[in-house]
Design goal:
Length: 319
């Protein structure tokens, strides 16, 4: 008798289906059980409002979590940057697989790079974080750009460029990799230019906290280095009291000496969306050995950023 299929809850978007399909294959390999995708529509998928207006955090996650808690699905896959920073009672992130490329990328007309865009170029993005850093970069490099808020899936966003409505759009490299469209990228943005969203490029595999056997099986897919990095980034975000619509960028990366990982560097940025004011700091220390140490690293950097005036730059607090 074949074992019953595991049900994986996923959003319906092409990107969500692609990344869930990849996780489904991996889970099938470690458990020896078939995995079926259960498509769930979330409020974030159906609302036409801008993310900043609908509260940002959790709009893509709540329906998946409800399905998990009701037992309609066995586990769910989220883009980690969409996941609220607060723990959810009854649920556990059983695995954070190895992270994809965390960078942001530009898809521009005429294969242009950010620095080649025409004066007054219209650049589309849904993220205040990207707007703040792009505008700050433009200010410091004598460029004139116009950042335009957009929503929609990868097709819609790239469509604005193809139709000539926008000169460029900024997207996450990881998403384009997962849907097989990375070859459309015209410029990879250095993290020194634009720090990604906390957790960008990483996935979270979540299941019920009382399902010990599934937690153990999913745990095989966990990448410890990715987990400590995103834990530090999200701790910074939580300590700044910011949702995913806030203009906060963070990246923890591992500093290696040859093959030996020596330290972790955590960088954070918060700014006004017009780019006129940025608070950008970093800290370097030993690689956190525990979840608590990773949390502490994020909190410490957030405290320094708040001391430098970060709180006043957060814009509207998400209620």
């Amino acid at each position: 008798m074949t074992e019953k299929a595991l049900r994986l809850g996923t959003r319906r978007s092409k990107l969500a289906m692609a990344q869930s399909g990849q996780v489904a294959d991996a889970v099938s390999q470690v458990t020896g059980r078939p995995v079926e995708l259960v498509e769930i529509t979330t409020y974030g998928d159906t609302s036409r409002e801008h993310l900043a207006q609908i509260g940002g955090t959790g709009v893509f996650v709540a329906a998946l979590r409800d399905a998990l808690l009701r037992g309609e699905v066995d586990f769910a896959v989220h883009s980690l940057k969409d996941l609220p920073t607060a723990e959810h009672e009854g649920l556990v992130v059983a695995a954070v697989p190895e992270r994809e490329d965390p960078r942001d990328v530009v898809v521009a007309r005429d294969a242009r790079k950010l620095t080649d865009l025409p004066r007054g170029a219209r650049i589309g993005t849904g993220a205040p974080r990207r707007m703040a850093q792009l505008n700050a970069y433009a200010r410091s490099h004598g460029m004139e750009i116009d950042t335009v808020p957009i929503r929609g899936n990868v097709d819609t966003r790239i469509g604005y460029v193809r139709s000539g409505e926008l000169d460029a759009v900024v997207l996450a490299a990881a998403g384009l990799n997962r849907v097989g469209r990375i070859d459309e990228v015209t410029d990879f943005l250095s993290v020194d230019t634009v720090l990604p969203a906390p957790g960008q490029g990483a996935l979270a595999i979540e299941c019920a906290a009382d399902n010990a056997s599934l937690i153990a099986a999913l745990g095989e897919l966990d990448d410890p280095f990715t987990r400590v990095a995103v834990t530090a980034e999200r701790s910074l975000l939580a300590a700044l009291e910011a949702g995913c619509s806030a203009p906060v960028g963070a990246l923890a990366d591992l500093l290696a000496d040859g093959q030996i990982v020596k330290e972790m560097r955590l960088r954070g940025v918060v700014g006004t969306t017009d780019g006129s004011t940025l608070v950008q700091l970093s800290t370097t220390g030993p690689v956190p050995e525990t979840h608590e140490a990773a949390l502490a690293l994020g909190r410490e950097l957030a405290t320094e950023m708040l001391a430098q005036g970060a709180a006043g730059l957060m814009g509207e607090r998400a209620h």
